[in-house]
Structure formats: C-alpha cells, structure tokens
Design brief:
single chain, 397 residues, mainly alpha, Amino acid/polyamine transporter I, 18 helices, 78% helix
Length: 397
C-alpha cells in the first residue's frame, strides 16, 4: 500500500482545492454530479497504469522512450512539463496564500519550507518520503470538519451526487472538464508508475495495488466532495464570488464560524505542501526516464543529480514567479486544469497501446471489457474537452 493512495490524494493539491472551490462557488451543489464519473475515470486509468508498471517493471516514461523513440519522448516531455509547471505554480501559490491566511510572512517562510522539503527528499528514502505523505494526508480531515461546520443539507447533497441539478451550459461543461483535469492527471500516471518502481514492487503485488487504487480513488474524491460542500453551503448559498481557495477560507469564516475557515486554510496549506513535492517529482521522474538518467528517491544526490536538479529547477522557477508581491495564479486555475484535460486523450493512447501489448503485459494484458471501458472513457473525455473549448471561447467572447 502507498503509491496509489499518495497519488490519489496528491490530485487534491492546492490547484485542485482552488478548482473545486471556484467550481462550487459558481455552481453550488450542481457540480457534485461530476464526482462519480470522475472517480470512475480516475480508478480506471490508475488501475491500468499500475498494471502496466508492475507487469513491465518500468516507469511509463521508460516505456514511451523504448517503444516510440526519442522524438516522441521529447514532445511528450515538453507537453508534460508545460502542464505540470502550471500545476506547480498553483501549488507554490497556494502555499503562499495559506501562509498569508495565518499571518506569516511568505517572503521568509515560503523559501524556508521549500528548502526544508528539498533537504528532506535528498536525505530521505522512498519509504520515509511515503510516510511523510501519509502524515500529510491525515490533515485532509480538516475538510470533513469544515464541511460539517458549514451545516449543509446532506439530503440535497446526496441527491445532487446522483441526480443532475440546475441547467446544463457550456460554462458548466468547461468547469466540469477543469475539475476532471485536476483530478485525473497526466502527471499522476507518471508518478504512480515511477513510485511503484522506486518502492521495488513487482507483479506479485498486483492484487493489493489494484485494490489500493480503487479504494484511494473513492476516498480521495469523498474529500473532494467535502471541499465542494464547504464552499457550496456558504459561498454559493450567499451569492459571494471567489477566485481562489484562500478567498474561500476567508469567506467561510463569517458564514460557518472561524474554525471552519481555519480548517479550510489548514487543508490548503497541506495540499500546497504535498503538491510542491509530488508534482515536481513527477516531472523529474519523467525527465530521468525519458532521457535515460538515474532517478530515484532511494539514491542520493550524487547518483541522481539530474533527477534532483530538475526537481529544484521547477520549484525555484515557480517560486521566482510566486514571490512577486501581487502574483496569484488562482485567477487562472480553471484554465490550467482544463489544459490538463486536453492532454489526457494523448495519455489514453499510450495506456491503450501498452496495456494491449503481450510483450509488456504478459498475462496481465487488457481484456475486451477493459478495452471498452478505457476507449469509452477516452471518447467521453475527448468530447467533453471539445465542448469545454466551445464553452471557454464563448465565455471569452
């Protein structure tokens, strides 16, 4: 147990919290209808990713390089880097906003936290790093208590999860696709495959890891629901407008009490810190694997210079932008997460190709039902992205 749970909760990073908050503030409980379909897509893609990684003993980026060559690898890396850097900007920005919420000078504490994170990763091993991530995940309980303190109508919530509410619009589809893009990510496929390899798990661990990704997908999206409920029951119900998770935490305080707002802020801090670790690691893993460098949390800085160097490059570059006094990426959060969704169909092509290769999968090759589900998810996501693009263009006009 470990990689699946960490990856699923890392999808609820600071950028994710921002997207869920903005979506719930715009559409209230109506946005809850996205939870079940997104959960299904999450565990379908993660299960296939786990199966590919354990059957092959390789990371996803390794397989892309070996099967499609360096040119395709370079194109994929550029796409992943652009998308991931947008997410890293959100996470560092979220960490900055959380520090400001608690009256801490981000000019001092933000660089300090990032330095501590880097030192820990360099001096630690995968096993110790995973334990830290488990500890951080416990703090997501703050969203449960924040939702309870908001005193929502749980009957309406239950109905909204399974029965569509309100009017369908291109703007709603666009926002829903952004919610999908922050939950089901391309970087999630890279990090879970590389984490399984780093943890030295094999095909003998297949059953437990398949169970883990299904369990983790459900539990992490239950906490997504709590985030949405806390905002919908307060901000949306009182017709307020927010552009970030930090603004949501401030808005919740007078409506549901100081404790609810504080707990929401604590959740944002933890989500930002977790995201600042996981997402740059994902890109660093992809960079190392695609170009044949050593890259592992079980190796020191001397053996994995390019791996840790690329991690530092991403975080420092993001921090340079975010340290500017008036910088806040949260106003662009839906755009960044929508971009995540745009490249998902590309990742589905790789998953389909690898999962149907007997050379790679052996007895774990996809069956007909798994192919139907995977292709169905890919088609639905592609159509949703196209509809979302129309909605985004109409919104701009």
């Amino acid at each position: 147990m470990g990689p699946g749970l960490v990856t699923a909760f890392a999808d609820n990073d600071a950028g994710g919290v921002a997207t869920y908050s903005v979506a719930a503030s715009k559409f209230g409980y109506q946005i809850l209808i996205t939870l079940i379909p997104i959960t299904v897509v999450l565990f379908v893609t993660q299960e296939i990713g786990v199966r590919i990684a354990l059957a092959s003993g390789k990371g996803l980026a390794d397989l892309i390089r070996e099967r499609f060559g360096i040119v395709t690898s370079l194109i994929i890396f550029i796409l992943v880097f652009i998308v991931n850097f947008g997410v890293i900007l959100q996470d560092v920005s979220g960490l900055k906003s959380a520090l400001q919420l608690f009256g801490l000078d981000y000019r001092i504490y933000l660089p300090l936290l990032l330095i501590i994170l880097f030192i820990f990763l360099v001096k630690s091993t995968y096993k110790k790093t995973e334990r830290l991530f488990f500890l951080l995940i416990l703090f997501y309980l703050s969203y449960l208590f924040s939702a309870i303190l908001a005193k929502p109508d749980w009957g309406v919530i239950a109905k909204s999860i399974v029965v569509p509410q309100g009017k369908m619009s291109f703007n709603f589809i666009y926002t829903s696709v952004a919610v999908l893009g922050t939950t089901v990510t391309a970087w999630g496929q890279f990090i879970i495959a590389s984490s399984l390899k780093d943890k030295k798990l094999t095909a003998s661990d297949m059953r437990i890891e398949q169970f883990e990704v299904v369990f983790a997908s459900i539990v992490s999206n239950v906490f997504t629901m709590f985030m949405m409920v806390a905002v919908a029951a307060t901000v949306f119900q009182n017709h307020l407008h927010i552009g970030s998770a930090a603004e949501a935490a401030v808005a919740i305080k007078p409506l549901a009490g100081d404790l609810a707002g504080i707990l929401f802020g604590v959740g944002l801090f933890v989500a930002g810190f977790l995201g600042c670790a996981i997402v740059p690691l994902s890109t660093a893993y992809a960079f190392s694997e695609l170009f044949g460098y050593e890259g592992s949390l079980n190796q020191g800085l001397q053996k994995s210079k390019f791996f840790y160097g690329f991690f530092v490059f991403q975080v420092v570059l993001a921090a340079i932008f975010v340290m500017q006094p008036n910088f806040s990426l949260f106003s662009f959060t839906l755009y960044a997460d929508f971009l995540n969704s745009v490249i998902l169909p590309v990742m589905f092509i790789f998953l389909f190709n690898f999962a149907n290769s007997k050379d790679i999968m052996g007895k774990f090759v996809n069956n007909k039902l798994q192919n139907i589900i995977l292709v169905g998810c890919g088609i639905i996501i592609t159509l949703a992205v196209m509809a979302g693009l129309v909605g985004g263009l109409l919104h701009l006009i």
